[in-house]
Amino acid sequence: MSLFDDPRLTTMGLLFEAHDGLVARLEPTWKAAGLSGLDLNALMRLSRSPQRRLRMTDLAIQVSLSTSGATRLVDRLARNGLVERVLDPADRRAAHAVLTDAGARTLTEVLPEYLAAVERWFTGLLTPEQLDGLVQALRIVRDAANPDAVAGVDP
């Protein structure tokens, strides 16, 4: 077997190809709402966080942005009324990104079509056992390769 035939290359190639294909299939759902994939990711993370808020630094880590990148993201979402920045009363140097009611309504409008596309192109293609195994495997890989993906989330 040559180095080029290593099954690890096939595994990574399949992961990249699946990711790229899924993004292409899901992208129309967030674009129809005037959002980018990053916007949707940030809004979903805020919606699933306690009190619909995250420290700016935790949001930056969760969406794989620098602090300045997260600031630009939150500024854009705030201009559209989807998020607001709130100073932390306990630490005036820190700020939180908070999902607004308008942001929650936007998610409520986008998610049904998004979830239908997720079902059609991803989760619905797998048996319940396959999906459960995939979720478990993804958590293992995520926790090893990107443990900060859940920054600011209580275990």
Automatic annotation (TrEMBL):
SMART domains: HTH_MARR (SM00347). InterPro entries: HTH_MarR-typ (IPR000835), MarR/SlyA-like (IPR039422), WH-like_DNA-bd_sf (IPR036388), WH_DNA-bd_sf (IPR036390). It comes from the Bacteria. Residues 5-143 form the HTH marR-type domain. It holds the Pfam family MarR_2. PANTHER family: MARR FAMILY REGULATORY PROTEIN, TRANSCRIPTIONAL REGULATOR, MARR FAMILY. This is MarR family winged helix-turn-helix transcriptional regulator.
